Amino acid sequence: MPMIMPIRDLRNTSDISELAHKSQEPIFITKNGYSDLVVMSAELYERFAQINKVDQAIYEAEKEVEEGAQPIALNAAMNMLNQKYYG
What is the pLDDT of residue 1? Predict the structure, then answer.
């Protein structure tokens, strides 16, 4: 269940920090009854950022295929990456 807090509760920064780290869930901050901000721990943000990078790479690859790029087999891709990084 999402955590929702009014913006006035942001005064309790230590409590919010502890809650964010303990729950590892985003905390939705409302202003005048409407969603305004999202607060989360740095660890959770990093996880979201990493997931976003993977999702973006998948989206770009799918778009390339739609535009006519030829997919390659996993083994071929791994060989190309190994050559790139390990010479």
Answer: 80
Q: How far is CA 80 from CA 59, 62, 70, 85, in A?
A: 21, 19, 15, 9
Is the pLDDT reported for residue 87 higher than 80?
A: no
As to burial, measured by CB atoms within 10 angstroms (0-12 exposed, 13-18 middle, 19+ buried), residue 16 is middle
The DSSP letter of residue 71 is P
In the chain, % of residues over pLDDT 90: 85
Q: Please, what is the end-to-end C-alpha distance for the chain in angstroms? A: 49
Q: What distance in Å separates the CA atoms of residue 47 and residue 25, rounded to the nearest whole number?
A: 11
Amino acid at 80: M
